[in-house]
Write a structure and sequence with these properties.
The protein is of the alpha+beta class. The protein has 3 domains: 3-52, Roll (Structural Genomics Hypothetical 15.5 Kd Protein In mrcA-pckA Intergenic Region, Chain A); 61-124 and 212-231, Pseudouridine synthase I, catalytic domain, N-terminal subdomain (Alpha-Beta Plaits); 128-207, Alpha-L RNA-binding motif (Alpha-Beta Plaits), CATH 3.30.70. Helices cover 21% and strands 28% of the residues. The protein has helices at residues 3-9, 15-23, 114-121, 141-149, 187-194, 225-231; strands at 27-29, 32-33, 46-48, 51-52, 61-66, 95-96, 105-111, 129-136, 152-153, 156-157, 162-168, 173-180, 199-207, 210-211, 220-222. The strands form 3 sheets. Strands 5, 6, 7, 8, 11, 12, 13, 14 and 15 form a 9-stranded mixed beta sheet that branches. It has a 4-stranded antiparallel beta sheet with strand order 2-1-3-4. It has a two-stranded antiparallel ribbon with strand order 9-10. Helix 1 (3-9) packs across helix 2 (15-23). The longest helix has 9 residues, at 15-23. It is elongated.
Length: 233
Amino acid sequence: MRLQKYLADAGIASRRKCEELIAAGRVSVNGTVARLGATFEEGDEVLLDGRPVAPQREKVIILFNKPKNVICTNDEGEDRVRVSDFFTQLPYRLYTVGRLDYDSEGLILVTNDGDTANRLMHPRYGTSKTYRVLCTGWLTPEDKRRLRNGVELEDGMTSPAELRILRERQDGRTELLLTIHEGKNRQVRRMLAATGHDTLRLQRTAIGKLELGDIKPGEWRYITEDELEKLTQ
């Protein structure tokens, strides 16, 4: 099999991230630094940064309510709180499926299953993501039309989104739900900024049909087989 698939199956990271590790020269097979396109065969010795990589037998996917001011990277040089810091008691090498900004909160998936992570992150599957937002101002009819039909950003037009206004507050702020079907960097914040509204709070409440529910910030649970089936249909 492809070396990046072996690394992903071993819970190192998503397949794309594993390709980056190989390209950076951090992976060796049988004592030789691997190159992109390398394959793994039964009995090969694979090392990442000089440490053996063994396949994981049990695959887990966790629903986690990420608190604000927590980062998704596993880089050990970071001095900020990481998502992985919440799972030090588990015997798995875990990483997040995609990213949720440092100043955002809510539902993120954490796993050691590279194949499932790769599928969920791939744009062709169009897994929707729903966010509860508090923003400045009240949205005009034109603002709502643009958010629903697509907003021109510096990296291209966004896909149509689903918008639901929850409350227009007396303090001049708006609470809303926005569902998007792609994953541009800081997309929801930039969409609202393009219509003249600053995001004051952003919480992801759902990925596809998987909802955050009443799990409190910093808490987590394993997802069920039924939930996984709905995510990967």
